Amino acid sequence: MTAPRFLQIHTLHSYAAALLNRDDSGLAKRLRFGGVSRTRISSQCLKRHWRLAREVNSEGQVVRDDPHALQHLANYVDSSRSRELVTEKVIAPLKGKYPDDVVAALEPEFQKLVYGDKADKGKKNRQTLLLGEPELNWLAREAERLASESGDVAAVKKAVSDWVKDKNYKAMAENAALPGGLVAALFGRMVTSDPAANIDAPVHVAHAFTVHGEEAESDYFTAVDDLKKDDDDSGADTIQETELTSGLFYGYAVIDLPGLITNCGDDADLASRVVHHLIHLIAEVSPGAKLGSTAPYGRAGFMLLEAGDRQPRSLAESFRKPAHPRLDAAVEKLKAQLGKFDQAYATGESRLCLNLSDVALEGVGDASLAELAMWAAIKVKEATHA
Fold it and tell me: Structurally, how many domains does the chain consist of?
């Protein structure tokens, strides 16, 4: 059998009375598909929740954890995304250790190196960048060296000016298998100031959408002042309104397996473990705001994995004509669309699925989530021969 290049992941998740992903007006995100308005979850929202399955606050305390969080992987390399990377990660450790004027002389050049020519126009004009721990550590070491070796301010300015001439992202990345961290290795990175620093994303994520027309309503709610006395004005202290939606969402993601292995420093074992964890995260980690008032937690009722060497294709077309908002009806539509693609293209993907519906997919084995994740991990190893 030909070694797989792509792993396709199709999911169906159900959520009720939630507000999973909001637009700029505070309403649920939407899109029109097949002439019908659907509730949508953006790919950025999905990826963020997968990344932050283990979240640590500024005090270093774990505020959310998952046994399959990427941070639990051996050889995990951390990264940070901010406009203030140089200020907080490179310059701040020097303050109080070296004269203020020496530190102030270093900062502008390091800002330009990382953020480009717009760096001196204020942080609002900087691109929000993702830098890996190896890159940040390299910058911090170089800043420390320049501060300690240069002496007075004039010497510092000359030293840093000479130093920065031949420095770029390539210099930061030398001798690092994951220079941008594991997050960049999965989801890519774009650096407008230095295109050579861009990292292609091997994990491609579609916006999830409801397989049926949107189901939404306004939720009128109040907050009552418990300490109001009987002679105070009666009624609620706060009256607000929000939107709640319900839906069965189709999700789709593709992993370019050789691309992921390359981004993991040609470490197929690490890439395999990453995919194993990612399958768990996609199935089990719920996106969503308003956790305290809606408890928007759900797990995939259906998850189909496909491994093959041909260009991927979404099964979103299954729902151009809206399905009934039930898992069985949605799986029936996926099954029909899959059959049409197989008959027309005969691309021969190998498949395995987790299926909580009563509709069986012909020729596709049923498995638990643990078995799916293990199967996907094996496909990564097979891709090393592609």
Answer: 2
**What is the pLDDT, as a whole number, of residue 161?**
83
Q: Which residues contact 372 (CB under 8 A, 6 or more apart)?
A: 279, 283, 303, 305, 352, 353, 354
Q: Annotate 342-366 with DSSP letters as a single string.
A: HHHH----EEEEEE-SS-PPTT-EE
369 and 350 together in one domain = yes
Q: What is the pTM of this model?
A: 0.92
Q: What are phi and psi of 162, to 5 degrees?
A: -70, -40
- Whether residue 119 contacts residue 83, with contact meaning beta carbons closer than 8 Å, is answered with no
Residue 371 in domain: yes
Give 323-337 as a DSSP string: PPSSHHHHHHHHHHH
Are residues 44 and 14 part of one domain?
yes
pLDDT at site 173: 81
Residues 333, 376 share a domain: yes
pLDDT mean for each 10 residues of the chain (386 residues): 91 96 93 97 96 79 87 93 93 93 90 82 81 94 89 84 83 84 95 86 98 92 74 67 94 98 95 98 91 92 98 98 97 98 97 98 97 98 80
- Pairing outcome for strands 365-366 and 350-355: parallel
The pLDDT tens digits for 199-238 are: 999 999 999 999 999 999 998 887 777 777 666 666 667 7
User: Same domain for 303 and 359?
Assistant: yes
Tokens of 106: 């270093």
Q: Same structural domain for residues 42 and 88? A: no
User: In the chain, how many H helices and how many E strands?
Assistant: 12, 14
Q: Kindly list the distances between the CA atom of residue 298 and the CA atoms of 15, 52, 74, 150, 358, in Å, as whole numbers in the listed order.
A: 6, 17, 28, 57, 19
DSSP, res 218: E
Quickly count: other Cβ atoms within 10 Å of residue 75's Cβ.
14
- Cα distance between residue 123 and residue 127, in whole Å: 8
Q: Which domain holds residue 106?
A: 80-184
